Amino acid sequence: MSLADAQWARIEPLLPDRAPRRGGRWRDHRQVIDAIAFKYRTGTPWMDLPDHFGSWKGAHNRLRMWAADGTWAKVFTALLAQADAQGDLDWVITVDSTIVRAHRLAGRPCSWTLPRRTDYHDPPRCTKVAQYAGQ
User: Fold this and answer.
1) Backbone angles phi, psi at 21, to 5 degrees
2) Is the separation of the CB atoms in 14 and 75 below 8 Å?
3) Mean pLDDT across the stretch 100-122?
4) Is 70 exceeded by the pLDDT of residue 129?
5) Helix 29-42 vs helix 56-69: angle between axes, to the nearest 10 degrees?
């Protein structure tokens, strides 16, 4: 299953030029993105990518290079902004106590005191945490 033409039309302008700084031209970006999507959709090892995707090393190296230079973050941010502007996203935020961890002293009362120094580079310290920590 490869990218649909409408999906590719949204992604293509966000990708870097196909002529890298050194060497020849890169293989088609669409083919590489299809290879990366196939790999993660099926869970297959890189070396077992089908031949019609080309060299697995090329797809793997481009994935790593685009992650390092921020290309994937730029593409994701732009697609998210487009979808949000078109009203295609429903934002739902949930907080569950099974994933939000609190320190064991979080529920105890605390009086915050500011440092007596004038530069205030140190964060405020809780004077009562030290008392409870000794228990």
Assistant:
1) -65, -35
2) yes
3) 58
4) no
5) 100
